[in-house]
Structures are given as C-alpha cells and as structure tokens.
Queue: 2 jobs
Job 1
Amino acid sequence: MWRQLRLLSPFVAPLKSSFRQVPYTWSLMETFSADTANMAEEKSFSRMKNLFLAFVLGGPGSGKGTQCERIVETYGFTHLSAGDLLRREIASNSEHGAAILDIIKEGKIVPSNVTVKLIQRELESSESSRFLIDGFPRSDENRIAFEQIIGREPDLVLFFDCPEEEMVKRVLSRNQGRVDDNIETIKKRLTVFQELNLPVVNYYAEKGKLHKVSAVGTVDEIFERVQQIFSNYKCLLDQSSDENFPVMSTALHKQ
Ligand SMILES: Nc1ncnc2c1ncn2[C@@H]1O[C@H](COP(=O)(O)OP(=O)(O)OP(=O)(O)O)[C@@H](O)[C@H]1O
Ligand SMILES: O=c1ccn([C@@H]2O[C@H](COP(=O)(O)O)[C@@H](O)[C@H]2O)c(=O)[nH]1
Ligand SMILES: [Mg+2]
C-alpha cells in the first residue's frame, strides 16, 4: 500500500520522512483513500441502479429454486439463492460458517448484514444485469438492510403460494442431504415463514410489486403462470438488454 502510494503520488513523503512531514503525508493519504472509496461506492451505486432485480419468495419447499431454474433458462437471469450463498459460507469454513450452520439447523434467520453482504458481493462481481434473489428478504429487518446497503428496491417480487401440507411433503422428499430437511426443522421454518416472511410479502403487496403465483400443480403449469407475469415486463423479452443472455429458449419462441 505504502509503496503503491509513493509510486502514485509525488507528494507522498518517503517512509523515513521528518516528523513535520508526517501529518501532511497522512492527510494526503486519507484524502487519497477516501477518494478511492468514494469512486468505488459511486461505481457500485450506478451498477446497482441499472440492474433488474426480482425477489422470489415462498415458504420452504414451495418450489422457488425449481422455478428459478426455469426462469434462468428462459429469461437469462442470474440466480442468487440466499440459502445457497449461506450454505457455501458453511462449506468454505468461513468466519461465520459455524454460526450460520447453527442458525439454519434451527430454521432461524441469519443476521441481515451477513446475508446482504453475500448478495452484494455477487451483484457486484457478476456482469449480468438481471438477478433472481431467491429466498430473501425473509423479514422486514432483512428488507430494510438490503435497501440501506444496496440502496434500492426490487423491480418485482414473485410469491409462490403453496399449502403447508404440500410444502412439507416436497421438503421431506427432496433428498438433497440438507440439514434442515427434517420434520422438526420444517415446523420451525414454517413458523418463521408465518411470523417473519409473510409481513414482507404483505409489504410488497401494498406497494403493488407483488405477483402471487399458485404453486400447486406441475412444474410446467406453475412456470406457465410465471411466464404470464413476465410477459408484462417487455424489457425482459429483449435479448439485447442483456449481453449475457444465452440462447433464446423454446419457451419464448412459442409465445
Ligand atoms: N410443482 C412441483 N410439484 C412437485 N414437486 C415439486 C414441484 N416443484 C418443486 N418440487 C420439488 O419439491 C422440492 C422442493 O422444491 P424447491 O427446492 O424448488 O423449493 P424451495 O422453495 O426452493 O425450497 P427451500 O425454501 O427449502 O429452498 C424439490 O425436491 C423439487 O423437486
Ligand atoms: O435470506 C436468508 C436465506 C436463508 N436463510 C437461512 O437458510 C435456510 C435455508 O434457506 P432456503 O432458502 O430454504 O435455502 C433458512 O431456513 C434460513 O435458516 C436465512 O437466514 N436468510
Ligand atoms: Mg430453495
């Protein structure tokens, strides 16, 4: 860092500077670092502003991940599952890994700043311009933290509405070795869903951003409903709006 600064600015004093030079050097360094930080923040702000963001909500096992896969194939979104990002943190033995594992086993919600930072890292590092944020926000606190850190709201919110019985059946037959796919944890997740997730759903309904989709039926039937909703967003049908959009899918050709 010191070496880089000295190379970059002729005004930065050498390491063995006289005592009188030090405050001057520090103040220049502070200005330099503050400018760099401001530039990075502005760049991030302008990127965030131009993204198309869709939140995908629904109870445990309602089919969020399954439908996200179909949306990705058809509309070229990048899929960010908050749960998957947290599981990746656990698998990588990161600083918060052990604490996250305990929270997931209990079906509780990981502190907002941890999850939002993981999402932020993905949004900033990807070149995609449209994202599905699956399984987030899970509480009003999550939602507010996202607005504060990312500086914006989603363009649309999908809510997969599924009867509890069906959700329990799907989770118990998922067979992916998840630590929270057992009846005890599912009961806790359903309580958290009722008490903390649903207020977020209601918030977006009041704001006119919510699209409620019945999650009963086959995967294809449910995806048809999603396509009906997306057909109202013309910007999503235009390939040129996202350079990273893959091949136009057959589903879109049919329309
Ligand atoms: N329409 C459907 N009919 C029957 N099974 C389905 C349907 N959609 C998804 N499933 C199955 O139900 C299970 C849960 O689906 P999925 O993982 O997509 O749910 P989820 O909402 O992402 O759950 P979680 O919040 O726990 O991550 C999976 O095994 C999936 O294959
Ligand atoms: O924003 C989030 C998302 C997830 N969690 C925790 O992870 C599990 C599993 O999430 P899935 O979306 O079902 O994969 C969830 O029960 C929470 O414990 C979270 O805290 N915050
Ligand atoms: Mg999922």
Job 2
Amino acid sequence: MAGLDDVFGDLFSSVDAVALFSPSGSYYERFTDLEDEDDDFELLVVGTGNDVGADTFVELPLEFDNISDRIRFGLEGALDQDIIDDGDMLACATSVFSDDIDTVSRVRADADSRTGIYDLFARSRADPEVVKSVLELAIELGQKGQKGKPVGALFVVGDAGKVMNKSRPLSYNPFEKSHVHVGDPIVDVMLKEFSRLDGAFVISDAGKIVSAYRYLEPSAEGVDIPKGLGARHMAGGAITRDTNAIAIVLSESDGLVRAFKAGEIILEVDPEAY
Ligand SMILES: Nc1ncnc2c1ncn2[C@@H]1O[C@H](COP(=O)(O)OP(=O)(O)OP(=O)(O)O)[C@@H](O)[C@H]1O
Ligand SMILES: [Mn+2]
C-alpha cells in the first residue's frame, strides 16, 4: 500500500530489535503476538518496573523526562546485558506527549558513544538502589528547596573509606554513631535540615550515611565543569576521579542535579521537570 506507510515505515523497516518503553499490557501483547508469527526482531521492554512481565527487560532507575536520555539509557542497558549487539538498528517506541506510546525513534546501538549513564547505576560500587535513592533525594530537594529558597547539596556515594581519607570535617558529624540509610523515612527530614549547611554528605556502597559536613580535598587537576559552576561541582567531579565514588550534586545557582563519575558529568536533570 502506497502512502504514509511507505515513508514512515522506514522508521521501523528491517530493525534488529524493538524497544518498548513502559508499554501497557495490551500494547506489549500485540508485539508478542507479532513476534510469534515472524521472529526476526528482538523484543525488549524498558521501564522503571517490568509491569508487563516481559521476558527481556531493561530497568530504568527513573523515568527520564528527557527522551534521548531515556532511550540512551535503554540502549546502554540492552547492550550491557547482551540483548542487542553493537551496530544493531532499533525502533524505540515511547511516550512523549501522553501516557500512551506515541513516538518511534530509529536508533543505531553504538557501543562507542556510550555515555556511561547505565554504568552510573549498574556498575557503580554503590548499590543501584542507593544511587537511585540519592538521585531522587537530590531531585526532591531541588524541587522543594529550603523554606522556598533554592538549596545546593553534594552527595558522594560509594567508596566511603577512601572518600573520608580525602576529606576533612567542617563541623561535628551528626551521623557519627547513627545507622541511618538513604531511603529511611527519617532521612528526608534530616537531610533537609542539614543541607543548608556546608560540605558534602558521604554515603557508603550500601547506603549508610557515613558523614555530613565533609570538606572534600581531591586533587582537581584536569577536571572540567560547566562554566558558571564553582567549588562544589569541582570538588564533586574531582572526588569521583580520585576514588570509585560517584557524586550527585544539586546546584544552588542553576537548580540542576548533576551526576559525576570518573571525573565526568554523566547526567544532568532538571528537578522541575519531574
Ligand atoms: N571542597 C568542597 N567540599 C565540600 N563542599 C564544598 C567544597 N567546596 C564548596 N563546597 C560547598 O559548596 C558551596 C557552594 O560553593 P560554590 O558556590 O563555589 O559551588 P558551586 O559549584 O558554584 O555550586 P552552586 O551551583 O550550588 O553555587 C559551599 O558553600 C560549600 O558548602
Ligand atoms: Mn556557586
């Protein structure tokens, strides 16, 4: 049949895999039916949860509002789990304007252009759930601020022993003898209280809050951070090059949350978009 199908059909012609981002159950089933008939594409589901019980699933740590971040994460996860191969062509179906899938992107999986976003969660020393919780905390703090005023915060996650060795206390450590973990309900309250004070939070691989008020002293040589940002981001970036920690930084000045790994910015999210 000639017409729009001919043109738009190019988007999904001869793809190696179809990635469905958070599909509804019935949408997913339409694809599994197709797959049974004509088994020449790989079918995978990407989402924050495997609600449809897909056999092949890549877990998103959060619903990326930015579509290219969302797709990039899915692709990196699929490559990492050997669901797809470098060079495979994918049709990625996701929702942009509504809750239903309304958009298809034709994307080639390119192992060379990995951003490391998947690594940030799946291959950090810290537990992915811990990374996710801290990221959510930073986003929430960015949305709410402190009594309506913007706040900044710096969380260093994982490799805590080494991070402690490369930092010094700015004040007494309120977490000294406590066993508080990110994700505990009390953490929200405590962090809001402490975030208006200086320094970094140090969090262990397992999510224990090891310290607040740490002044980081990594060597900052050769760490590049965006213009307009200062010491907090520099210290956050640099500590991730000096140790195997990652850093999640909420900027007081531009309100964005950024994640650093190995001295590089890996993720930049606007809390207001969540
Ligand atoms: N080396 C460091 N370790 C821990 N915290 C730091 C360090 N340097 C700065 N900070 C914290 O960051 C705060 C803001 O510093 P600065 O304005 O230079 O950072 P920034 O990168 O511009 O961040 P923002 O965008 O939030 O302003 C400081 O008040 C301090 O609490
Ligand atoms: Mn600043």
